[in-house]
Design brief:
By secondary structure, this protein is of the alpha/beta class. It has 23 helices and 16 strands. The chain binds 2'-deoxyguanosine-5'-triphosphate (DGT), calcium ion (2 copies) and zinc ion.
Length: 603
Amino acid sequence: MSFNRDAVRLLNEIASMMELLGENPFKINAHARAARAIEGMSQDLGAATGDRSALTDIEGIGPKIADKLIELAETGGMSEHAALAEKVPAGPMGLLNIPGLGPKTVRLLWQERGVTDLAGLKAIIEDGSILELPRMGKKAVEKIAAAIKFAEQDTGRLHLGVAMPVAETVVEHMRGVKGVTRVTFAGSLRRGKETVGDIDILVCADDPVAAGEAFRTMPEVVAVLAAGDTKSSVRYGLDVDLGRWNFEGRSGDAEERPSVQVDLRVVDESSWGAALLYFSGSKEHNVRLRERALKQDLTLNEYGLFPEDREAEGSPQSRGVKPVAAATEEEIYAKLGLVFVPPELREDRGELALDETPALIEVGDIKAELHAHTTESDGSLALAELVAGAKERGFHTIAVTDHSKSAAVAGGLTVKRLRAQRGAIDAARQETKGITILHGSEVDILADGELDYDDEILAWLDVVVASPHAALSQDPKAATKRLLRAIENPHVNIIGHPTGRLINKRPGIEPAMDEIYAAAKEHDVALEINAHWLRLDLRDTHVRGAVEAECLIAIDCDVHRAGDFDNLRYGVLTGRRGWLPKDRCINTWSAKKLQGWLAKKHG
Ligand code: DGT
Ligand code: CA
Ligand code: CA
Ligand code: ZN
């Protein structure tokens, strides 16, 4: 599918460069539309380029775009892209990544003010001259300044959902290497953190040198950083467009391929548990464990838990001291007088005080998806495909929740279209057995907390997910009022992605979460963990707060494409990091309990 990915990127970049050059809006739109069409496709378009009419048959792809796709298949590039790139420097393209800066503004900044990079932009914000540009009020400039500040904090950490498939591929690869007896990933990834700095892989191998060699010669490795007998480090090339700040070059350039560091450690079978514990972290959790060990006259390191001998020189393992525990994490925790701590909890947030290993939610517990879009709004799945996807996962309930009318860019439904959708849903109900299809809506929470449909419509629906989409830079006070008002609506079941943040992209609103938890509990509203790895909203610490405040939680995939169902595990990991037990998550309930709970506010 790398053909589709390249096509989407090149077409989007053509559209952006044309916009910066002030070209014909129709031409610009044709490219952007084609990119969107290809983005939603599940088949490999590269295979279709032999047949021009098959390409033009696709909605959104005209003859001119078809030719460009054929050119891409034949030459690996698009000449128009190259020609435009001659005229548009990389700097202004990079500026487009700043939320709040549209192509019209970037064009002005570039053409009128000669601003081509972040430093230039910051300079004219500082001296106030940016205000002289058309459509640039104080508010707009404040927004841009805040976006710059947020983006500058981007430390280059990789999204969980990008890192996880890489780690799994590496683990799979290492499992196939001769003499390798154990493989797993550790570090922040094993803890399910929303972003990871690097990926840590642990193996046991009969031949450590060969294992290291097999690791460093994986086809995706773009650079080897370290090559020791038991430790290797590489940079691993990624097949994703991170949409990162990219002032130096275009993502289309091969040498700009993004990559992530992957560390490999080869450890001894006998100290597997100690190594796994050490390299899973967090560092803070490890520090607490070592303190605890010392109090019991024990020493904990990556080789094992050893009796402490203050007189002796050198490490216990080098002196041949027999460990008290080393082979499994379980026995190490047990010898320290602790219960087993699930990796997601190892953040020094009170987990050592547990007197029982908590039963946390698991992916297999989820039985319903309550936030999903179809082609009626901005989803790429037809209703029947969505329902089939949910059935395939063994769910008893799927809620169709397309966008509401104010979400115009996302194809939000007018009341008329929403009413008409009920007909299609009723028909699907006739055709499908074994799953309940609920007719809901993802209703915009407008800036002041008003909902985007009136109460009569909300009551008529089966389920209401109310979410903030616009006005995400409002101040915390206004944001709190906004969410509280939505929670108090008698027909709202779930608050979708409550803060609207996008990881590494925008901070979202910052309401007083304690007030939100309390109100959600009082009004029997569930707060969503949006499972998309770009969102993970609620975030882990919010989940913890919500669980402590006795709120209900929903974990939903916010399905827009077929693959989105697979994001569920990231939502569940985030739930686990928030100490979420199964029964507090409404998606784990039986059909009867869940549907009964929803119906209390509808019909
Ligand atoms: P990351 O990669 O920044 O997302 O976070 P981690 O937690 O994966 O950190 P990383 O990759 O630097 O190291 C993996 C684990 O190894 C870490 O969670 C704990 C352990 N570790 C690394 N350095 C130290 C250290 O200096 N002291 C202790 N106690 N543990 C360490
Ligand atoms: Ca790491
Ligand atoms: Ca590491
Ligand atoms: Zn949404």
